[in-house]
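Section 5: illustrative case.
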């Protein structure tokens, strides 16, 4: 047992291992269907008869941190663990082309496992982010060859993530590209360390235009897939066809599925779209959403849920499963709740309207002149907190400095007399005029506490084009904005606040205001906005309930 495993056991509060005697076989060769050889490491718990197999497929290296968090800890609890490197990574043959080969390569890995003498006939799949995508890519065709899967902070359709609101997720896409460039030249453990050290160079590159030069500035080399993403941004582009986007097949998954996500995860809307697709096909996936961002605090609670989930479907031990399939952490209330479905039954959409004088109320607004601001792409409105890939910058943050900017409008309610619970999808309908036909509108919902501190709850952006959002005779455009879903309790004495601005940079690339192509735009022009008080935000409200003691802490999800 290594020091790292002692730390993991204690920090993650895992149940005691069934064995410490683990055999590790490195560099096993798996034949892909096209003849390429994929490499894998195998963790075998000695003297553990009839052990099921847990498969992890990863582009981040067989000895990287994510792999170490899955390998020995699960092996010590009675699983044969296969950690397989994706095509073109960490010694595996072929070329790494993100999201392009994970269905066929995953099925080929499953073929190989089923022929191995140590395999007992039962396979489960586990892992976060790209490791979760590899599960969703292969699961529709794997059928009952897989006993259970647990895709975490992931989605079957990554196009949803890269082009939020028809913009481009610059910070996430460039940071991930830089990480993969480092991994291409370093060992997995060294890459884990260097990724953080190189982050400053990547952030500097994000300031540059045109975007098709930022990958070389940030990583030292041009990335083929990053260039592809910049020119494949229009809906229906064949790059994002069935080879990479598996949403159309997600309803075919018959394997018991536990989707695990976070309220501040960049991938959450895509994950919930997968849940909806499975429900529409008559499936009943389980769903857990906690107070987490992407790949930060999820490892301990996810492993704590994975062990009983897999035990139920490999050993028939259902004692650790919860009563309801949906489990949500309600922020602001500090408690976990269980529901039969998502969105929870009984929610009612309630409109809150922007008011003259920067108020926010369920009442219809009185007449008044529109509110105005100017967005300057040369000094873009910054992103503060929210669903970011950077764990230090993501999540719930004080928005004071952001709201003090002249290019951010804020609308604030009176203090609440009763608690208000917002649980479900959130949307806005913004009516505006803009001096340019090409612009963005960013909407954020905040919780203002009695001390006046404004903390972000959820947000979203929509890119405006004249084709998609034509103007009326007086130049007004009606722009729907889909915000992140949430589960949040606004306490009595707190106030609701809505921010409206022209961007959230560098989370989302600045809109140059010119309509030039995403990849090559260099010229920028300011955009003047008029926001009409006929605009509103729709909150999914549940009837108020008496505050309850938390069922458990976030760490014991």
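Designed sequence:
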């Amino acid at each position: 047992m290594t020091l790292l495993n002692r730390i993991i056991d204690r920090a993650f509060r895992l149940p005691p291992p069934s064995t410490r005697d683990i055999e590790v076989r490195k560099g096993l060769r798996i034949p892909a269907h096209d003849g390429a050889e994929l490499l894998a490491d195998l963790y075998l718990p000695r003297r553990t008869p009839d052990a099921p197999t847990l498969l992890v497929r990863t582009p981040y290296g067989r000895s990287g941190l994510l792999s170490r968090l899955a390998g020995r800890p699960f092996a010590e609890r009675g699983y044969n663990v296969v950690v397989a490197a994706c095509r073109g990574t960490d010694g595996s043959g072929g070329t790494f082309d993100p999201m392009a080969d994970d269905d066929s390569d995953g099925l080929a890995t499953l073929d190989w496992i089923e022929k191995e003498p140590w395999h007992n006939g039962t396979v489960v799949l586990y892992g976060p982010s790209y490791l979760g995508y590899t599960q969703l890519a292969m699961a529709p065709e794997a059928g009952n060859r897989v006993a259970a899967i647990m895709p975490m902070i992931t989605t079957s359709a990554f196009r949803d993530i890269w082009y939020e609101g028809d913009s481009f997720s610059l910070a996430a896409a460039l940071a991930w590209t830089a990480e993969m460039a480092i991994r291409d030249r370093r060992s997995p453990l060294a890459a884990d360390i260097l990724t953080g050290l190189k982050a400053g160079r990547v952030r500097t590159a994000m300031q540059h235009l045109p975007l098709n030069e930022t990958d070389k500035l940030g990583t030292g080399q041009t990335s083929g897939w990053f260039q592809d993403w910049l020119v494949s941004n229009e809906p229906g582009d064949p790059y994002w066809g069935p080879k990479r986007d598996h949403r159309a097949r997600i309803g075919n998954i018959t394997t018991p599925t536990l989707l695990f996500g976070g309220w501040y995860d960049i991938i959450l809307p895509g994950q919930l779209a997968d849940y909806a697709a499975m429900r529409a096909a008559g499936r009943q996936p389980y769903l857990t959403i906690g107070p987490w961002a992407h790949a930060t605090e999820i490892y301990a609670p996810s492993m704590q849920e994975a062990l009983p989930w897999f035990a139920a479907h490999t050993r028939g031990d259902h004692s650790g499963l919860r009563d309801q399939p949906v489990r949500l952490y309600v922020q602001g209330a500090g408690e976990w709740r269980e529901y039969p479905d998502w969105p929870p039954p009984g929610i009612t959409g309630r409109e809150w309207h922007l008011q003259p004088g920067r108020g926010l109320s369920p009442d219809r607004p009185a007449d008044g002149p529109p509110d105005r601001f100017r967005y300057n792409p040369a000094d873009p409105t910054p992103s503060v907190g929210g669903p970011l890939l950077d764990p230090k910058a993501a999540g719930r943050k004080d928005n004071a400095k952001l709201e003090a900017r002249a290019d951010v409008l804020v609308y604030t309610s009176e203090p609440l007399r009763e608690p208000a619970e917002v649980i479900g999808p959130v949307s806005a309908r913004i009516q505006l005029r803009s001096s340019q036909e090409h612009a963005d509108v960013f909407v954020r919902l905040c919780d203002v506490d009695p001390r006046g501190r404004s903390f972000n709850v959820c947000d979203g952006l929509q890119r405006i084009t004249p084709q998609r959002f034509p103007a009326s005779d007086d130049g007004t455009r009606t722009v729907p904005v889909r915000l992140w879903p949430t589960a949040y309790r606004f306490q009595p004495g707190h106030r609701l606040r809505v921010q409206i601005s022209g961007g959230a940079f560098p989370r989302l690339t600045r809109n140059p205001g010119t309509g030039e192509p995403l990849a090559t735009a260099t010229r920028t022009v300011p955009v003047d906005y008029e926001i009409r008080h006929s605009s509103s935000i729709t909150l999914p409200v549940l009837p108020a309930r008496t505050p309850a003691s938390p069922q458990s802490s976030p760490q014991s999800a």
